[in-house]
Design goal:
Elements (H helix, E strand, L loop, with lengths): L3 H4 L4 E3 H8 L3 H10 L6 E3 L2 E5 H9 L25
Antiparallel strand pairs: 1-3, 2-3
InterPro entries: DNA-bd_dom_put_sf, HTH_17
Protein name: Transcriptional regulator
Pfam family, one: HTH_17
């Protein structure tokens, strides 16, 4: 019997590997985490990890077919967003 997790690679990535997958610097991903603008993450013990599915879902928010395509979501820059009011 095969387990898919054992053969498909890691299910969770730590910040440096997650940033590399997304084409970002680890510091940028840390800023996204602090500001709440990045992908969903988990704390396992004292470690921050990202599920591959969550990284892909976050990146997919920026999918566009053209510059005029509004898309389905927004990937915000890694900075504090103004309060909505």
């Amino acid at each position: 019997m095969h387990t898919s997790a054992a053969h498909s690679g890691p299910r969770y990535l730590r910040t440096p590997d997650a940033a590399k997958l997304l084409g970002l610097s680890p510091r940028t991903l840390e800023k996204h985490r602090c500001y709440g603008t990045g992908p969903v993450f988990r704390r396992l013990g004292g470690r921050v990890v990202y599920a591959l599915d969550d990284l892909e879902a976050w990146a997919d928010l920026g999918t566009r077919r053209s510059t005029s395509d509004p898309g389905v979501g927004t990937v915000y820059p890694a900075k504090r967003r103004p309060a909505e009011g």
